Structures are given as C-alpha cells and as structure tokens.
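Help wanted!
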Amino acid sequence: MVYKGKTWKFGANVDTDAIIPARYLNTTDPAEMASHLMEDVDPAFIKKIQPGDIMVAAENFGCGSSREHAPLAIKHAGISCVVAKSYARIFYRNAFNMGLPIFESAEAVEGIQEGDELVVDSEKGTIENLNSGKIFPAQPIPSFMQQLIEAGGLMNYVQKFKMK
Amino acid sequence: MIRPMTISEKILAAHAGLREVEPGQLINARVDLVLGNDITAPIGIEEFRRIGATKVFDPDKVVLIPDHFVPNKDIKSAQQCQLMRQFAKEQNLTHYYEVGEMGIEHALLPEQGLVLPGDLVIGADSHTCTYGALGAFSTGVGSTDFAAAMITGEAWFRVPETMKIIYHGKRRPWVDGKDLILYTIGQIGVDGALYKAMEFVGETIANLPMDSRLTMANMAIEAGGKNGIVAPDKVTKEYVQSRAKRPYKFYYSDGEAQYSQTIEIDVTRIEPQVAFPHLPSNVKPISTVGKVSIDQAVIGSCTNGRLEDLRVAGRVLKGRKRAPYTRLIIIPATQEIYRQAMKEGLFDIFLEANAVVSTPTCGPCLGGYMGILAKGERAVTTTNRNFVGRMGHPESEVYLANPAVAAASAVLGRIGSPEELGLLP
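Answered by r_m:
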C-alpha cells in the first residue's frame, strides 16, 4: 500500500487521553470516536484534517491506556497512517490488530516540518518527504505482524485460521 | 541445556508449550484468564459477534467487570454495561461481577483469587500489569486481542527483554510502594521500560507488603513496561493460600538469566514522591514541592484503593478535617475492602474529616465522573496518570502521590506531608 498525505506533527509522549479523552469512551461508534480526535490538544483538529493526512510524532506515541478507541478514532477520522519515532507497546499492538498502518522512523520524523507531504510505501518500507525530497527507510515489520495486516487484522486472522 | 531464563520468560515458555524462549521471539501462548471492562469489552464483544463466533473458549476464564463508569454515569455508559451484561448471561460466564459485587478490576481479581502465581493473564486494560506482584505474567491489551482470546484462549506475544531493578535498604517514614515506583519512573522516564519486563527485586521488595507490591507492578505501564513482576515469596504465599481455588506455581529467575539492564536504587534516600503535571515521570521529593494549593484530593483507584492505603489515610486523617473549600474523595476499590474499612472504623474517621466515601469505581481517575476538575483546578491523587485533561478540564492539573501525602494534603489545602501535621508513622 502507498499512503500519501499532508502531515500534522506532534511531540513526544502523545498519550491516549490526548488522542481521545476518556469522557468519550462510553461508545463503540468509530465515527463518534473520530469526532473527538485530539480534541483537548486542538479542538479544531478534526475540522482541519483531510482524508489521507498523516499524523507524525516523536517518541512513545500512544502511551497510557489500552483503549482501542485511540487507533479507531485516528483511522475513522481519515488519517491514512501514523509515522513516529517510537510507539507505546499496547498502541503498537492495537494498531496492527485493528488495521491502522503505523511506521517507525526517527530519521524521517526529524526531517518533517508540519504540512510536508509524505509518500509512505508499506511494501518498499520507505517514507518519502516530497518537500525535502529525502527518502527514509521505515523499521521493518515482523513477518507475523505482516500476516496480520494481510489478513485484514487479528479478528479476520482468527476467523480464517482458528475458527475452522 | 536450557538457556537460563527470567521469571517472565519461564512463564511465557510454559504457556507456549516451549522449553525455552528468548527476548524478541514471537510466540503464541495459552492464557489463564482474559479480562475486559465496561470501556473495552463492548468493542471486543461486537468484534466477537462480527466474525461469527458463538462461544467463548472457557466460561470460567473470561472475566467481565463493569468498573469504569458504574454505577452508570449516563445513558451511553448504561448501554455499554447492558451489552456486557447480556453477553455475560448469554455465555454463562462464571466471573461477571454486577454492581454490588464488583470492585476495581485490578484490586478485585487478586483479592478473589482469580489470578494466581505463575499465571499468564491478558486484560483489555493497561493496568492489567498489576498481577505481576503475585508472580504472574500479566499485561494490558486492546479490545481486539481481548475478543480474539475470548475465542481462542490464546494470544501472541513478543517475548520482552527484562530490566532488573534492585531496591536496597529500609524505607523512610510514609514511603510506600507508590513512592518506589514513582521514583523509578522519574529515573528511567515514561518510555524507560518500553516493551520490557520490569523485575522488581532486592531486600526492600522482600519486606514490602502485598498491597504495595501491587501498586508497583500496577504502574509498570507508566514506564512503558510490558509487565512488572515480583518473584513469589512468603508474602505471596500468605496472600494467595487462603484465596486460591486451583493449583498455582511459583517461578523464579535463574541466577544466570540475562537482563537488558540492571538498575540499583538506594531506597534510604527516597522521600515520598509527587509527580507534577503532566507526566508520571515528572517527580519531585515532597520536601521540594513548594506551595501548591489544591482543590481536591482523591484516595482510591487500582493503584491505591486497597485496605492498607485506606488505613494509612485513616492514620493521617484521624481527628482532623480537610481544609475548607477542598474536596476529599475516598474510594475503596472493592466491596470487601469497603466492608473491612467500615468495620475498622475508618469511615467514621473519613466522615469526621468531611470526606466523601464512594462505592468502588474508576470514576475520577480517568475523568469519567465522581470528581471531575473544573478549569484551572488542581488535584492531588493516589491514581496513576497525570496527563493533560486526565481528571477533567484540559486546563486542570493532576499531581500523583501516595495515600499518606494525599490525605495530609487534603488537611493542609496544599500538597504536603504527614510530617507537617506533626505525625509519626
């Protein structure tokens, strides 16, 4: 897959309360979750973003709670993928399980100015910054997790391989 | 020859049916318990149904606890709980805890003997790492992992590297497990243990009561850890032997086991710690806090809502009143803790102090209800996170501390120590 979009840049330790405040966890509706994406950081964020845009962050993105509402809100807000220097463990796991594409590259993040256009190629494992013209390698994805993505997430994987 | 392993590696290997595992290895393992709550389970239940699953793998091993927004805080929360309740009925789950029986999940499971040493547990809540205090491997996952494990009884894991943290020496007055873990997070940072197992060892830990060990393991996630773990000993044995209704196993790290990092901490130098906004790693010793006025104090949560925590609060609050215009909210974590605290006369002390005592709930910890902060307000709390907006308005502030400091601060109307009230431990 190739993801192309404009970037929105955040710092280190973006926590899941920032991604979606806990007061909105009383729903299972992804569209509603998406409407509160990054609300306490920037209440206008959800209005500013365009489908396909890319969130970029420094270290430990998605730290804090295990709420899958966080990757769900990001995905259903139309964000195509996330590029960060590193991810908190549960967020990383959740993203693969539910099908939000995420990429890890400290070098790529360093060079990105907010608003830069990126082209992220999951097969080649590259992150290209169209504004600077630079191309960075993303951290390779372990093969089991590649299988999860190919199956369309953990539940589809379970349905295909474990429920027969 | 099997490679020497840590306690975390041994538990994972045993549950994966392997003789040995090593850090970085991806394994598929059998889980002893799968946990969900009223925030995370509904999404998981919808996923379970979406792919056409009809039966959980074992109705004795799926635990559902409504604890975050119950008794229902609003109509949407009520709907979430209703979905969970119907699923529990339909699946005939042994361990569904209705309001009136429920407690905060990570206090309730150890108390009821549902988690035991040597277990492998996943829970759709980040603080599932709490049970490491019993010598179990437990870790938080999301709703999808929860849903998948309800069907298969299995989960995939990347075997974590283990970080060994050695605590030396005797604790100072009013220092408990909360201070040890806050200090540790302050040293290594909120991603200092990212993807790693945190193994807590040393003579300080050997002398630490179970409630404090549970507090420490609980906050491993606040350093980014996959799990926190304490090797079982006589404290563990005493805690579990009256609660266990099935066999359990003590695992220990081998002498030659490999650690990615070893940290030594001189506990004799640690004062009660306060984590300033907006990260749990932003800690200061109580003597350097300065004058920080507060509007609210909260004593409770999966981190510090256990009986020892309430007893400490009682010692500080006895014969005192909270400061004017300062709310003091005390939340026993389970019905059993609630009843015992009541029997011991702690509620009289709390009510005399003008505190409110709530039924068990996660409520204010995550800004749900039962103690939300207004713009510009400050709270000192025994909970686990002080992120922006965690307890209410994005411009409110949360300071994390132990129960003694939270209680003393409620009396002082500013963050302060029990020693300022002339109290000896």
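OP: Thanks! One thing I noticed: Chain B has a mean pLDDT of 98.
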